[in-house]
Every structure is written in structure tokens, then in C-alpha cells.
Input
Amino acid sequence: MDNDVAVEAALAAGEDGWVEQRMASKPKESPDYIAKLVMLPEHMRGGMRRYIERGIPPGQFMQRLLENDFMGAIGRADDENVRALKAYSVYLYNYCPSGCYGSPERVDAWIGGGGMNGREQG
Output
């Protein structure tokens, strides 16, 4: 059983340790924020990467999450994202650029600046 299938099975069964299992599969050649996307629900990975790299505005759940609006995020989360809140916290704190999350002002500035690509070009 590959790691993604095992992690999904643990997640579906409500077993503890699924965040740690997702973190265990890091390709060595990728930047951490890309490699660690496996921690997040599969349907959210593309949006997170586009937001980080290009500053493309995310959906409502992810926007509230990035803005540190817990109540707003919960109100917009599907069941899988509710279960993944710890993974999002670990992912953002440990692997993402600190300027891309934490408050509405930071998120707006990140979007306005074009994400990491905009900062590299500017």
C-alpha cells in the first residue's frame, strides 16, 4: 500500500497520526512548501500552491484559514478540511513563507504582490 493510500485509510478511520504519516513522504529535491503539500487534502493542494507561488486568491475556506479566521474557516470547510485543520496549522507554520498567512492584511499583501514569483521578480 503506497503512503497516500495508507494516509487516506487512516484519515477515513479517524486514526491518530495521519498528519505525521503525510509528513513522512517528502521528495528530497522539492522545496518544503511543495513537498509537504501531501499533508493537505488532495483537492486543496493546487489552490495552496497557486496562492503561495503566484498570489492567486484562494477559495473562501482557504482565505479565512490563511487570514487566521478560525470561525470563518470552519464555517466554510467541508468535512475533510475540518479533519485536516491540524495539518494546515503544521504546514503553514513550518513550511510556508511567513508573509503569506496570519492576518487579512498579510494575505491581501501576498495576493497584491503576486506571491513568491512577484517577490522574486520585484
